[in-house]
Design a protein that fits this description.
By secondary structure, this protein is an all-alpha fold. The protein has 11 helices and no strands. It has 2 domains: 61 residues, no CATH class; 168 residues, no CATH class. Helix content is 75%, strand content 0%. 23% of the residues are buried.
């Protein structure tokens, strides 16, 4: 179901409760009554086109066929992506870690095998944090620099070098390793750990990992389907002006 401006926000949540952290990152908390999405966005001062783009991308709709990227600001996209990073660091990664620790502590079989899961997750977490840091310190500042240069119609020499050496398209390839390692971690839990009398805790770890994966897919879609195309167009326009 495609989310529209006239839909009640409560109906959108009933359709997919996984939208809850997404709307929280956009500045909306529960307790909104029967307000429509447009009414609620007006009340909260949220750009309706931007809101619809984010939630429909999360639901894996092809937003490029239904929405105009020109209606969305680069600054808004970067603010949302940074809020997503904070959510991962403060909520999702600690949740997965806590559930893995609980699984190890209460396992009725050889804990050494479960420690392999913990060690694998620690490696994944290290790479994941490094990826977020790279985005925060390198990619997003570059994106904002290109956006600002495009606004004023002026391309400085140092930015020209950046565009020529590392255009935004090269950034879109960086998510593959992070996604594949998360898949490998799920596979270990699903296929290779021995049977246990209590499957509840293992299922809890898997549920947290699937939830993280779903949110990361949304994060990648926003970057690859919205941010990268917007900046790529700006890069080309700036290069033409040289």
């Amino acid at each position: 179901m495609f989310i529209t401006r006239n839909m009640k926000m409560a109906d959108a949540i009933h359709h997919n409760h996984l939208l809850l952290p997404v709307i929280n990152r956009l500045g909306i908390q529960l307790g909104f009554g029967d307000l429509s999405i447009e009414q609620l966005c007006d009340e909260k001062g949220i750009d309706i086109d931007f809101f619809l783009m984010i939630v429909n991308a999360f639901l894996d709709h092809d937003i490029n066929k239904t929405m105009k990227l020109d209606n969305v600001s680069v600054e808004q996209v970067v603010v949302y992506l940074k809020a997503t990073h904070q959510y991962y660091l403060e909520r999702m990664i600690p949740e997965v870690e806590n559930r893995i620790n609980a699984l190890i502590q209460h396992s009725d079989i050889d804990q050494k095998q479960f420690l392999l899961v913990k060690n694998f997750f620690e490696e994944y977490k290290h790479e994941f944090y490094a990826h977020l840091k790279h985005e925060e310190q390198s990619i997003y500042p570059y994106v904002l620099e290109v956006n600002q240069a495009n606004k004023i119609g002026k391309l400085e020499e140092d930015l020209l070098q950046k565009i020529q050496n590392e255009p935004i398209d090269s950034y879109a390839e960086e998510h593959t390793d992070i996604e594949s390692k998360l898949f490998d971690l799920k596979n270990i839990l699903i296929k290779y750990l021995p049977e246990s009398k209590d499957s509840y805790l293992r299922n809890q770890v898997l549920n947290a990992l699937f939830k993280l994966e779903n949110d990361l897919n949304d994060h990648s879609r926003i970057e690859n389907m919205v941010l990268v195309p917007m900046i790529s167009v700006m890069e080309n326009e700036l290069l033409k002006s040289c």
